[in-house]
Amino acid sequence: MSQASNPNSQIWVERLFEALTNGDRIQARLVVDAALRAETSAQDMLLNVYWPTHQLFEKLYRQDQMTKVSYHLGTRLLRSLVDQASGKLTLSPRNGQTIFAACGPSEGEELAGQMAADLLEAAGFEVSFAGGGIPADEIMEQVQERRPDFLVMFASAASDLPGIRGIIDQLREVNAVPNTKICVGGGVFARAEGLAEEMGCELCARDPMEIVELMTMPEVTQGDMGDLRITTRQLKPAKAKAPNRMRNAA
């Protein structure tokens, strides 16, 4: 299910990044129109253009190389573009697997969580995406009530970790939903190697495509993982490359 990146994707990322940081809605859409003539599908746009653009915003903002107004202008407009692409995803047949998903509280984390949720839905899962800022006890209540096949916490913030750890510990202690697998990815889990395994998560991935690939593996969907922990930790990380022109991001 992996997608080969178009050789020109980095060009679209650079041009889109510059338009977004300026809040230039017209130019952003012109860049998208040009990219759509090169990328072959809505999924390609999400994975090859929008996801790396999102990574750049998160990286530069964390490193204090971008003003808050540029971050807000860019992420808000990028989310509207992602919404349009997600509505054009080709849906696979339903696989009978259910997901309850949540993410970190920031706009960027919600954007990443939404991309993961949209791609999982397109892959055949029935997804309920709660977004960010949900208290851990309410997530736990939903899991016990819905009994999903997967609890996905994608693009979580470091501040979410105590709550996530509490959810995992409680699920393991009471064994109330023994068939629910815990899957995490992106956010703090992508930056802290080994954290997911240490916390007892069954699945961990760095980006939305990896989480789809892991969750559609036969040993995962058929429920025969046993004590297996599956991660993409051994893969070489894909590094976000900063555009050449950064003057508008500062």
What features would you describe in this structure?
The protein is 51% helix and 11% strand. It has eleven helices and six strands. Strands 2-1-3-4-5-6 form a six-stranded parallel beta sheet, sandwiched between helices. The radius of gyration is 18 Å and the shape is globular. Residues 233-250 have low confidence and may be disordered.
Provide key terms for this protein:
250 residues, alpha/beta, Methyltransferase, Methionine Synthase (B12-binding Domains), Chain A, domain 1, 6-stranded parallel sheet, disordered C terminus
Low-pLDDT segments: 233-250
From the helix content, strand content and strand pairing, which structural class follows? alpha/beta
Mean pLDDT: 86
Which sequence of strands runs across the widest sheet? 2-1-3-4-5-6
End-to-end gap: 37 Å
Question: What percentage of amino acids are in beta strands?
Answer: 5-15%
Our Rg estimate from Cα atoms comes to 18 Å
CATH architecture of the largest domain: 3-Layer(aba) Sandwich
Tell me which oligomeric state these chains represent. single chain
CATH 4th-level superfamily of the largest domain: Cobalamin-binding domain
SSE series: HHHHEHEHEHEHHEHHE
Residues in helix, %:
40-55%
Number of helices: 11
Query: What shape does the CA trace take?
Result: globular
CATH class of the largest domain: Alpha Beta
CATH topology name of the largest domain: Rossmann fold
Task: Give a count of the beta strands, DSSP E runs of length 2 or more.
Answer: 6
The structural domain count equals 2
Main sheet attributes: strand count, strand direction, barrel closure = 6 strands, parallel
